[in-house]
Amino acid sequence: FVVFGVATEYCVRSTALGLRKHRKKVDLVTDAIKEIRREDGCKAIEEMVAEGVRLVKTAEVCVPSADRAAK
Question: Which residues make Cβ contacts (< 8 Å) with residue 20, sequence separation at least 6?
Fold first, then answer.
């Protein structure tokens, strides 16, 4: 699952950790999230990583349609 969005320390955290609780692989798109408070956002990311969430960038999860067709 690919997770991104706003309120890193609330919605994003809850979604990512919920998926991990069900043993799903989770990629957190770090350049597509935004925290409300920087300190709380950093803490949430640390918690998600500790639970097995993988940090990625948009370019790693978005493949242009022409590239997708070739695969």
Answer: 26, 48, 51, 52, 53
Q: Which helix (H) or strand (E) holds 7?
A: none
Q: What is the pLDDT of residues 25-68, one digit of tens each?
A: 999 999 999 999 999 999 999 999 999 999 999 999 987 765 65
Question: In angstroms, rounded to a whole number, what is the distance separating the alpha carbons of residues 35 and 9?
Answer: 6
Q: Are 7 and 35 in contact (CB under 8 A)?
A: yes
Q: Which of 38, 56, 37, 43 is nearest to 13 (CA)?
A: 43
Cα–Cα distance between 47 and 49 in angstroms, integer? 5
